[in-house]
Amino acid sequence: MSAGLLLFLLGCFFQGVHRPNRFLPSFRGICEVRSSAPGRLRLDLPLCKSKSVLAEQTGKQLLSTGCVKSVHFSPVTGSMLILYDQKQVDAPVLIGAIIKLMGLQDSLHAKENPLFLEKLHMVSDALDRACLDATNGWFDGRLLTGGCLLYAAVYQGMKNGFSLPGTATLLWWASSLLRKGDQTT
Protein backbone atom coordinates (compact mmCIF):
# COMPACT_ATOMS: atom_id res chain seq x y z
CA MET A 1 0.00 0.00 0.00
CA SER A 2 1.43 3.36 -0.94
CA ALA A 3 2.01 6.07 1.64
CA GLY A 4 -0.39 8.42 -0.16
CA LEU A 5 -3.22 5.89 -0.03
CA LEU A 6 -2.52 5.19 3.65
CA LEU A 7 -2.64 8.91 4.48
CA PHE A 8 -5.88 9.26 2.51
CA LEU A 9 -7.50 6.37 4.40
CA LEU A 10 -6.34 7.72 7.76
CA GLY A 11 -7.69 11.15 6.83
CA CYS A 12 -11.06 9.64 5.93
CA PHE A 13 -11.15 7.73 9.22
CA PHE A 14 -10.26 10.69 11.43
CA GLN A 15 -12.43 13.13 9.50
CA GLY A 16 -15.49 11.79 11.29
CA VAL A 17 -13.90 12.10 14.75
CA HIS A 18 -15.81 14.79 16.63
CA ARG A 19 -13.60 17.32 18.42
CA PRO A 20 -15.77 19.97 20.04
CA ASN A 21 -14.13 23.23 21.05
CA ARG A 22 -10.78 22.33 19.57
CA PHE A 23 -9.28 25.64 20.64
CA LEU A 24 -9.82 24.96 24.34
CA PRO A 25 -7.43 22.71 26.27
CA SER A 26 -8.98 19.26 26.61
CA PHE A 27 -7.30 16.20 28.13
CA ARG A 28 -8.92 12.84 27.37
CA GLY A 29 -9.90 10.95 30.49
CA ILE A 30 -8.80 13.76 32.81
CA CYS A 31 -10.57 17.02 31.96
CA GLU A 32 -12.43 17.04 28.65
CA VAL A 33 -14.36 19.99 27.26
CA ARG A 34 -17.78 18.66 26.29
CA SER A 35 -19.33 21.97 25.25
CA SER A 36 -18.66 25.64 25.54
CA ALA A 37 -20.39 28.87 24.72
CA PRO A 38 -19.54 32.38 25.86
CA GLY A 39 -20.02 32.33 29.63
CA ARG A 40 -20.86 28.62 29.76
CA LEU A 41 -18.55 25.61 30.00
CA ARG A 42 -19.31 21.90 30.45
CA LEU A 43 -16.43 19.65 31.42
CA ASP A 44 -16.17 15.90 31.76
CA LEU A 45 -14.16 15.19 34.91
CA PRO A 46 -14.11 11.46 35.72
CA LEU A 47 -12.60 12.27 39.13
CA CYS A 48 -15.97 13.88 40.08
CA LYS A 49 -17.51 10.41 40.09
CA SER A 50 -15.33 9.11 42.90
CA LYS A 51 -14.47 12.34 44.73
CA SER A 52 -17.65 14.40 44.92
CA VAL A 53 -16.40 16.25 48.02
CA LEU A 54 -13.39 17.50 46.05
CA ALA A 55 -15.69 18.62 43.24
CA GLU A 56 -17.88 20.50 45.73
CA GLN A 57 -14.84 22.22 47.25
CA THR A 58 -13.62 23.16 43.79
CA GLY A 59 -17.02 24.62 42.98
CA LYS A 60 -17.03 26.67 46.17
CA GLN A 61 -13.54 27.99 45.48
CA LEU A 62 -14.53 28.95 41.94
CA LEU A 63 -17.62 30.77 43.21
CA SER A 64 -15.51 32.68 45.72
CA THR A 65 -13.49 34.28 42.91
CA GLY A 66 -16.46 36.43 41.89
CA CYS A 67 -16.07 35.70 38.17
CA VAL A 68 -17.94 32.37 38.33
CA LYS A 69 -21.71 32.67 38.65
CA SER A 70 -22.63 29.04 39.29
CA VAL A 71 -21.15 25.56 39.33
CA HIS A 72 -23.23 22.40 38.97
CA PHE A 73 -21.66 18.97 38.99
CA SER A 74 -23.08 15.52 38.58
CA PRO A 75 -21.31 12.74 40.49
CA VAL A 76 -23.23 10.21 38.38
CA THR A 77 -21.93 11.40 34.99
CA GLY A 78 -18.76 13.10 36.20
CA SER A 79 -19.60 16.34 34.44
CA MET A 80 -19.33 19.90 35.69
CA LEU A 81 -21.28 22.85 34.29
CA ILE A 82 -19.78 26.27 34.96
CA LEU A 83 -21.50 29.58 34.24
CA TYR A 84 -19.02 32.44 34.37
CA ASP A 85 -18.52 36.08 33.41
CA GLN A 86 -16.57 35.96 30.17
CA LYS A 87 -15.46 39.57 30.61
CA GLN A 88 -13.61 38.70 33.82
CA VAL A 89 -12.08 35.31 32.95
CA ASP A 90 -11.31 33.28 29.82
CA ALA A 91 -12.36 29.65 29.48
CA PRO A 92 -8.75 28.30 29.23
CA VAL A 93 -7.84 30.07 32.48
CA LEU A 94 -10.91 28.57 34.13
CA ILE A 95 -9.98 25.08 32.91
CA GLY A 96 -6.44 25.55 34.24
CA ALA A 97 -7.80 26.64 37.61
CA ILE A 98 -10.05 23.56 37.82
CA ILE A 99 -7.13 21.28 36.94
CA LYS A 100 -5.02 22.91 39.66
CA LEU A 101 -7.78 22.93 42.30
CA MET A 102 -8.62 19.26 41.70
CA GLY A 103 -4.94 18.23 41.69
CA LEU A 104 -5.01 16.85 38.17
CA GLN A 105 -1.76 18.44 36.94
CA ASP A 106 0.27 15.28 37.63
CA SER A 107 -2.16 13.22 35.55
CA LEU A 108 -1.51 15.46 32.56
CA HIS A 109 2.15 14.42 32.42
CA ALA A 110 1.51 10.70 32.72
CA LYS A 111 2.28 8.67 29.59
CA GLU A 112 -0.88 7.41 27.97
CA ASN A 113 -1.00 4.30 25.81
CA PRO A 114 -2.94 4.45 22.56
CA LEU A 115 -6.34 2.77 22.64
CA PHE A 116 -5.20 0.39 19.90
CA LEU A 117 -2.44 -0.98 22.15
CA GLU A 118 -4.86 -1.34 25.07
CA LYS A 119 -7.27 -3.35 22.90
CA LEU A 120 -4.39 -5.40 21.49
CA HIS A 121 -3.28 -6.28 25.04
CA MET A 122 -6.86 -7.26 25.91
CA VAL A 123 -6.99 -9.61 22.90
CA SER A 124 -3.56 -11.02 23.76
CA ASP A 125 -4.63 -11.67 27.36
CA ALA A 126 -7.83 -13.35 26.19
CA LEU A 127 -5.85 -15.59 23.81
CA ASP A 128 -3.43 -16.47 26.62
CA ARG A 129 -6.32 -17.47 28.88
CA ALA A 130 -7.90 -19.52 26.07
CA CYS A 131 -4.61 -21.32 25.36
CA LEU A 132 -4.08 -22.03 29.06
CA ASP A 133 -7.63 -23.38 29.36
CA ALA A 134 -7.34 -25.50 26.20
CA THR A 135 -4.02 -27.05 27.27
CA ASN A 136 -4.92 -27.44 30.96
CA GLY A 137 -2.32 -24.87 31.96
CA TRP A 138 0.59 -26.32 29.96
CA PHE A 139 0.95 -23.59 27.30
CA ASP A 140 0.07 -19.94 26.99
CA GLY A 141 -0.19 -17.91 23.76
CA ARG A 142 3.43 -16.77 23.86
CA LEU A 143 4.76 -20.31 24.25
CA LEU A 144 2.51 -21.67 21.50
CA THR A 145 3.52 -18.84 19.14
CA GLY A 146 7.20 -19.42 19.87
CA GLY A 147 6.75 -23.15 19.29
CA CYS A 148 4.98 -22.53 15.97
CA LEU A 149 7.76 -20.18 14.85
CA LEU A 150 10.38 -22.74 15.88
CA TYR A 151 8.55 -25.46 13.96
CA ALA A 152 8.23 -23.19 10.88
CA ALA A 153 11.93 -22.34 11.03
CA VAL A 154 12.99 -25.99 11.29
CA TYR A 155 10.55 -27.01 8.55
CA GLN A 156 11.73 -24.23 6.25
CA GLY A 157 15.34 -25.03 7.04
CA MET A 158 14.88 -28.73 6.26
CA LYS A 159 12.96 -27.98 3.06
CA ASN A 160 14.99 -25.06 1.63
CA GLY A 161 18.20 -25.27 3.57
CA PHE A 162 19.09 -23.01 6.43
CA SER A 163 19.25 -19.82 4.41
CA LEU A 164 19.01 -16.21 5.42
CA PRO A 165 16.86 -14.36 6.29
CA GLY A 166 13.81 -16.65 6.50
CA THR A 167 15.05 -19.45 8.71
CA ALA A 168 17.33 -17.27 10.81
CA THR A 169 14.60 -14.68 11.35
CA LEU A 170 12.09 -17.31 12.44
CA LEU A 171 14.63 -18.87 14.78
CA TRP A 172 15.45 -15.49 16.30
CA TRP A 173 11.74 -14.69 16.83
CA ALA A 174 11.13 -18.10 18.38
CA SER A 175 14.13 -17.87 20.71
CA SER A 176 13.30 -14.33 21.80
CA LEU A 177 9.70 -15.32 22.57
CA LEU A 178 10.77 -18.41 24.45
CA ARG A 179 13.49 -16.53 26.39
CA LYS A 180 10.96 -13.95 27.61
CA GLY A 181 9.18 -16.67 29.56
CA ASP A 182 12.41 -17.62 31.34
CA GLN A 183 12.96 -14.06 32.51
CA THR A 184 9.43 -13.54 33.85
CA THR A 185 9.23 -16.75 35.85
Could you list the spans in which at least 5 consecutive residues all have pLDDT below 50?
15-20
| Span between termini | 41 Å
Which bin fits the share of residues in helices? 55-70%
Structural class: alpha+beta
Give the topology string: H per helix, E per strand: HEEHHEEHHHHH
- Morphology: elongated
Strand order of the largest sheet: 1-2-4-3
For the secondary structure, the number of strands is 4
What CATH architecture of the largest domain do you see? 2-Layer Sandwich
Q: Specify the number of helices.
A: 8
Summed up:
Helices cover 56% and strands 13% of the residues. With 185 residues, the chain is of the alpha+beta class. It has two domains: 91 residues, 2-Layer Sandwich (Gyrase A, domain 2); 70 residues, no CATH class.
Architecture overview:
It is a single chain. The chain is an alpha+beta fold and 185 residues long. The chain has 2 domains: 18-108, Gyrase A, domain 2 (2-Layer Sandwich), CATH 3.30.1360; 115-184, no CATH class. The protein is built from 8 helices and 4 strands, in the order H-E-E-H-H-E-E-H-H-H-H-H. Strands 1-2-4-3 form a 4-stranded antiparallel beta sheet, with helices on one face. A hairpin with a 2-residue loop joins strand 1 and strand 2 (40-44).
Topology:
Layout lengths: L2 H13 L16 E6 L2 E5 L2 H4 L1 H12 L4 E7 L4 E6 L6 H11 L3 H4 L6 H20 L6 H20 L5 H19 L1
Helix pairs in contact: 7-8
Keywords:
185 residues, alpha+beta, Gyrase A, domain 2, 2 domains, 4-stranded antiparallel sheet, 4 strands, elongated
